[in-house]
Design brief:
The complex is a heterodimer of chains A (276) and B (73). Chain A is built from nine helices and nine strands. Chain A is an alpha+beta fold and 276 residues long. Chain B has 73 residues and is an all-alpha fold. Chain B is 71% helix and 0% strand. The two termini of chain B are 15 Å apart. The mean pLDDT of chain B is 87. The chains are: A alpha+beta (276), B mainly alpha (73).
Chain lengths: 276, 73
């Protein structure tokens, strides 16, 4: 357990684990049947040899020495193949803590991938039970989507996927409420929260009278704002227009039904966005 | 025929080394209360049985004859 830096069963942070699950055992059925088939293949070959009356030739000459070695190596390899298949199945685990989802993917003896996803970033969770066996044994996939386009988290063949997906959303909502980060969550839905500094303060800082532009930018904390230093006449005109937009923005904010939120469209009108 | 026997022993040596390291890696990544320990035990018993049976057969067979005789039935 020394290699894990997140909550796992038996670790000091074990209390943080909400759900610890593996893939459903039925998901191993295909590999199990394949393993069984590979185990009986040599027996089938022997049976065929006996049926064709070749046993006296094959099992009594020096060829038998060769067959013993081949069968021995074959069964050793098959035993390892089955064991590695089982390890790859069993050691795949999903841990849902109070703050994140952790996926442990084991590939054979030496391959291990660990992915972590903060529950705060979760936007949508869906569960999927598809097919006869998944319906019969109540297992399926849980797809966790984040605000990013490519970032999805797939919990494959987990038992009771509906329960897991609802639990994930429940924890997600709890985090949002406890941390008071509703504004940040809304960002992914097209609603952006206002910056730390109020618009009045921004307007005051960006006035032409406020000569030190760099200082103003630093105070706002956003260096990508339009020019504030080296004020030329043209720049001063732009700044005044910008200031007007900010004033409009202030009025817009007051009119908003949800206080403290500003729509994404306001970006084009010069609204200040706190992306933290 | 000794050449096949030597190749088999080399294979066995590499195989055992691979398994020892693989199982070591697996053991240090275990969780509390998992079934990996039990499965490792079963796996080792299976390997022991396969190797023992192979050794039993190998010890009973005549390996001194030349390779050309292998195809003479």
């Amino acid at each position: 357990m020394s290699e894990y830096h997140f909550p796992v069963p038996g670790s000091e942070k074990e209390d943080e684990i909400v759900i610890f699950t593996r893939r459903h055992w039925i998901a191993f059925l295909g590999q199990f049947l394949l393993a069984l088939f590979l185990l009986i293949v040599p027996l089938i070959i022997i049976a065929i040899v006996c049926i064709l009356n070749f046993e006296s030739k094959v099992f009594q000459g020096l060829a038998f020495n060769f067959i013993v070695l081949i069968f021995s190596a074959y069964y050793l390899i098959i035993a390892t193949f089955i064991f590695i298949s089982w390890i790859s199945f069993y050691c795949n685990a999903y841990i849902i803590t109070k703050a994140e989802i952790i996926e442990i993917t084991q590939v054979g003896f030496f391959g291990r991938k660990i992915s972590q996803l903060s529950l705060l970033r979760v936007q949508d969770v869906s569960s999927n039970i598809k097919g006869f066996l998944p319906t019969l044994f109540a297992y399926g996939d849980v797809l966790v989507e984040t605000a990013g386009e490519r970032e999805t988290f797939l919990l494959q063949s987990v038992p009771n996927p509906q329960e897991i997906s609802s639990k994930i959303m429940e924890i997600h909502d709890e985090i949002i409420e406890t941390e008071g980060r509703h504004g940040q969550l809304s960002e992914g839905e097209g609603v952006l929260s206002p910056g730390k500094i109020k618009s009045e303060e921004k307007a005051r800082l960006l006035t032409p009278e406020h000569s030190d532009g760099r200082q103003a930018q630093e105070k706002i904390g956003e260096t990508n704002l339009p020019l504030v230093k080296n004020l030329t006449e043209e720049e001063l005109k732009e700044k005044t227009a910008y200031q007007q937009l900010l004033e409009k923005d202030q009025k817009q904010e007051k009119e908003d039904v949800q206080e403290g939120e500003v729509s994404k469209d306001d970006l084009s009108r010069g609204g200040q966005i706190d992306l933290k | 025929m000794y050449i096949f026997l030597i190749i088999w022993f080399i294979f066995l040596f590499v195989y055992i080394a691979f398994n020892i390291y693989g199982l070591y890696r697996l053991v240090i990544l275990r969780f509390k209360g998992d079934a990996v320990g039990l499965m490792i035990l079963i796996y080792l018993i299976v390997l022991f049985v396969i190797i023992s049976v192979s050794m039993l057969f190998i010890s009973q067979l005549d390996w001194s004859k030349s390779l050309s005789q292998i195809l003479r039935f």
